[in-house]
Please model this.
Amino acid sequence: MIVQMNHNASPADVAMVRKKAEEMSMSLVDFSDEITLRLVLPGKHDPYLAREFAELRGVNDVVATAHGHCLTHRAANPAGTIIDVRGNIFGGDLPVVIAGPCAVESYDQMMQTAVALSELGISILRGGAFKPRTSPYDFQGLGEEALRILERVRAETGMAFITEATGVGCFDAVESAADIVQIGARNMQNVELLKRAGRSHRPILLKRHFSATIDEFLHAAEYVMAEGNRNVILCERGIRSFVDHARFTLDVALIPALQARTHLPILVDPSHAAGDRRLVIPLARAALAADADGLIVEAHPCPNESACDARQALNFDDLEVLMREIEYPPFMTTAALAAEVPA
Amino acid sequence: MIVQMNHNASPADVAMVRKKAEEMSMSLVDFSDEITLRLVLPGKHDPYLAREFAELRGVNDVVATAHGHCLTHRAANPAGTIIDVRGNIFGGDLPVVIAGPCAVESYDQMMQTAVALSELGISILRGGAFKPRTSPYDFQGLGEEALRILERVRAETGMAFITEATGVGCFDAVESAADIVQIGARNMQNVELLKRAGRSHRPILLKRHFSATIDEFLHAAEYVMAEGNRNVILCERGIRSFVDHARFTLDVALIPALQARTHLPILVDPSHAAGDRRLVIPLARAALAADADGLIVEAHPCPNESACDARQALNFDDLEVLMREIEYPPFMTTAALAAEVPA
Amino acid sequence: MIVQMNHNASPADVAMVRKKAEEMSMSLVDFSDEITLRLVLPGKHDPYLAREFAELRGVNDVVATAHGHCLTHRAANPAGTIIDVRGNIFGGDLPVVIAGPCAVESYDQMMQTAVALSELGISILRGGAFKPRTSPYDFQGLGEEALRILERVRAETGMAFITEATGVGCFDAVESAADIVQIGARNMQNVELLKRAGRSHRPILLKRHFSATIDEFLHAAEYVMAEGNRNVILCERGIRSFVDHARFTLDVALIPALQARTHLPILVDPSHAAGDRRLVIPLARAALAADADGLIVEAHPCPNESACDARQALNFDDLEVLMREIEYPPFMTTAALAAEVPA
Amino acid sequence: MIVQMNHNASPADVAMVRKKAEEMSMSLVDFSDEITLRLVLPGKHDPYLAREFAELRGVNDVVATAHGHCLTHRAANPAGTIIDVRGNIFGGDLPVVIAGPCAVESYDQMMQTAVALSELGISILRGGAFKPRTSPYDFQGLGEEALRILERVRAETGMAFITEATGVGCFDAVESAADIVQIGARNMQNVELLKRAGRSHRPILLKRHFSATIDEFLHAAEYVMAEGNRNVILCERGIRSFVDHARFTLDVALIPALQARTHLPILVDPSHAAGDRRLVIPLARAALAADADGLIVEAHPCPNESACDARQALNFDDLEVLMREIEYPPFMTTAALAAEVPA
Model:
């Protein structure tokens, strides 16, 4: 449940709430913002207990939260969570675009990509170091070497980067290198990994499993948050259905449905949803039109030579089309933005 | 297969193609436009026969078409089919919006709706006369009486209207009254009804069954076209999946996938996809951002008193929001926006 | 709702119930069996009205039935509906097997099939006369000619037969010829056809649409029963899912789920579920192990020359294996059974 | 690919094959049985290389195996893999039944269960020690304490036990205690866990994710086998579909489809598929009728007091019914039944 204090609640009032929580052996997470004091008590909702809290001095309201959906609940942070990654604002007014290849293959490939993205106003690079492939005989990524490449590219271009931690075994390495740690769709219910991510100081991009309900998705985010990490970015990447004209079915309705239920930013990955580069741009436009907070897109200097997912990566010309069609890159310099606003 | 003639092909050349088709007992449909002479031979593709046609004088190319996907094939009308319904252009540059209640309940309800829509710039009304309800004990629509109401509203307001023919039994009545005849999702593979629609002089709005593949959907449209009716408008309304935050899952990727394969206009019904009015507007925006040719939306003067589908109908204030939001899609350039505003 | 009378209720008591139903303009269907007087009032359940009926003299109980699920409700006929088709008992102790080709192609093909089936103890033949094909350019069946072939084979062999009515247009012809009229999966929500079937004197085999919920399936059966036809046989034939090792996914759990909710017999079509003859026999065994009332199986003298669905039809050797594995054909004469038991 | 040697191949011939594999830096796994020398070279199939192996002396045949499906391939062990767990034979002629509660709650609960199962002839106990719950606030299992309880019950009753390793973190503990280590459906693509399981000396029961294709499922098993563990038992537990009369949809066709493609034993979990105890027994019967190698069933002394999944656990009376019903499957011939009963 979520305890909202009155605007004039005194520190003593807040201390009383904390004391009561302690007496009940409940953990308590402070979600106050500049306007409202807000204390979240994760766990099962208990109407009897809720009443007791409601009767404490200085308490304005106690919001019941569905089981397992507390820290992620919209009411914990009604204004929406904002996550700043080297100046890129997730959950702000403008969408963020992340782009790059499925897998890091070489320094040249990544440097070439970083330069191209910069020119398009994109300042977060994606690239797999550890790849969770379906078959044990597929290319599994360059691992630590890829992390070094990404770090070098960041040092030389200023681009932030995101890469996936495929398990607790490689989490430390990924965490110490990357600006954002990705948890892949197939690991969305790898509880051990979710808990480790919850103890990280890095923002986590959590992809929805292609067969997860909205509840299961939010529960996975709750696992991360319950360990203390508040910086979770959700990402929809298509569901598995009977449809055969796309690799997965982008679930656009998830965007407004999530916005109603959680304060976390929501990205969309149109590339994995489509599995076919001809569908990527329309899906990207649809995602932003449905109010997604940004995109994560596969792009490669030469998609047909890509080590994986060749069919869905955009080349840089296509990526330029995409950027033009979605129009206002949030990553534009203040000067560029100023130039756009009519005097 | 599709026989494309040279630009300088003579009438005698065309006659030769027709003669050959006749000899082979193949029907032949003329899809020529102002630029290109184009003759479609529906049915199975036969590479041997294709070669014979290709060798005739004046033939430029013979396009192989997948089985059962000939008259609907993009190559039959590369520029895209345009259908004009009382001045509303389906398949043109601007999207068309159709709105109205699930079911016609009374003259007052429809008149009130028509007036509200007119003020928002909508000029096609929807309203069910015959309702294909899941249960035999649900309200089945006012039937012929509803058609009379719709005709009266059209006469008084100039609004065109679309209504569903739920079977061959009521087709004549619907056809003689409505401007567009709808075939509902649950009847998408009712072959008898598709054939009857193919012999109609009215445009047909064909809804995709919620479990139909793109092939099955196009085959259903092909059934209609094979009987002679070229004016088919396709409509995506969500697929059935495991998802529980929306009644159906809007398959946005179907829009570009269809555009690549067929010349027919594509509408989207965000209301049935959502099953929840809070999701309708984001889905409508997403559909247009993915380049749909228009929307068909449920709207009701007082949704909570609606005879059916109460949860998904917009009231007129919501509809106004929708219209405002889709008029200024976020991806439009400032120039485009400026050009759109009348001086 | 379902009004159950006391065992000693008098004719006057029953008349009172009828009179009350009449006053309320409710239709009333008599589902009494030798043991219990039972009157079903189809339509929405009304607790207030239920109480009024419950208070009438001679009334033992009033069972609330979910909306649209009255005549099909288990409580309307707790012992289960039994349908006798020329001595084949659907819903009895032993399963019924129906077999034959997808489509009737010739007299020879059907005669050959009928002879082979007879030798295996099967006495109901299936064969499509009117075929509801996905594409307009596929073979649509021999139509009336096929009905004449089936009648001739019946006259010569004594085999009953089932064939599909693909619409109201061919219903009369099918009904006058066939012993059982089939409604195909794709027409499960063709309300016009369901209503026509409800006015038929023939038993109806109603296939579940591959994306229908159990409620939708029972509502479709209710449409048939609401028009007066009590002889409805339900048939599960697989659902559409993401699975790619079979054409559809046989929903075995539907069998016990239906048995709990309805009194109608339940068949299974393992052939369309599998779409692959190698899976047909295991699915057939599973269906009967889950207590299905019988099977409808595709079999063809020479499957690879079959006009349609060639991949899933069994040849007669395979069919013999199937019959041996499921062991006790219900349609066998006592003599035949005796002959099978080793002395 | 799989290299099959001639029956009279000499040790020198085999050495040559091994040498060639070494030269190509390919790993090679010996799958020979008493009859045939069979060497599996995991990884991508290369027709050119296959020819080279085929030309070596003593080589009978080289079987191409689809990418990522080598060690699991039926041809690697055509007779089928047999796994013996304390005398319980997985993959043998008779099905194995595993039963027990969702979670270990106490010594008494487990002891009571073990005694009841023993009386029914069941000798493998299941019980969750570490529970991978959807929500972080749900009961997560007794952990190590549960392992101690299971060990004590094993010591006192002789029952083997299986329990789940929910991550690499608890794998060592589970492995050292349990007779079989389970990998749950949600971890089916947790590659780190699969690899750890591949280095275990314990048999692994690998559950199919509820949205995994047959290829993905076999690839997961291949991950385990590629690390050296050959004792993998597959387990189908239902797929996620639109169906709402059961929690998941048991995919019976997977059983014969897997049998055609892999030599690994296949169990079925009817309890998680059903999510409703009334459906468990029919699903269990269906699974065995489709030739599953056994069942894993939830059973609890008092299901309604169960710490989790209360709705689907059988009580011991129900379990007795299940055991009785599967002992005499209806499709068994009288002769077979007679043969089964010890004189």
